Amino acid sequence: MKMADTASSNSVHMEKGWGALRQHIIDNKIKAALWVTRLFTIIFTIGYIIQIFGNPYNIYYKILMNNAATSALRLHQRVPHVQLNRQFLERLFVEDSCHYLLYSLIFLYTAPVTLVLTPIFLFALMHFASDSLTLLDCLGQNSWWGARLLISLIEFQSRNILRLCGLFEIIILPFTVLLVFTGRASLLTPFIYFQFLKFRLASQRNPFTRNVFYEIRNGLSSVSRKPTVPIIIRQIIEGLLSLTQQMAPLRQ
Question: Alpha-carbon distance 67 to 70, whole Å?
């Protein structure tokens, strides 16, 4: 009799868990859609790298389109009411999701480059882990402990992941110039990406790109002051520092 009661109790508990999950999805349709698009971004990126889904060329652009869909959904969350005025546009362009919508559009018109997918994958992985934890909480605090362990590992490394994303955002700028010379991107690509990077450096929600940018500048400045550095290298570094001086806002 006790075993029957225990089984019945477990069944009710399970129903409540899945019922809570179902209700959470109904109440948060956009968040659920974001979870799905991020999941597909992760799956497609892994499939692109190890080439398990057929034509990697098509998979590459599916990743960019998934990221664009994720960014558009997130942007709708942040700025739900469209207005045709200057204030709305200013608010739009300070949103990180708008930046990455632009990022996807930039590289939809270039040849596939694996480096471009790195920040997309890292952001998708980090936010997917966070959203998955919310879904697991609906099922119960003790459910899926293996998945919770993986999520905790990702969240523990979240600052390093954000710093790595910032580093790749900066590295990709000179890389776009190389793409132009190799015929894999148009002449406009570096200029549009330059504007994207300026948006990232001025981000109000994510200071990591800006912090990494300053660290790189300070490191190059220290190198240029060393007496053992050849004059031509020093001049190149000073030219880069001068060129990038106005890219990021002053640190508070």
Answer: 5
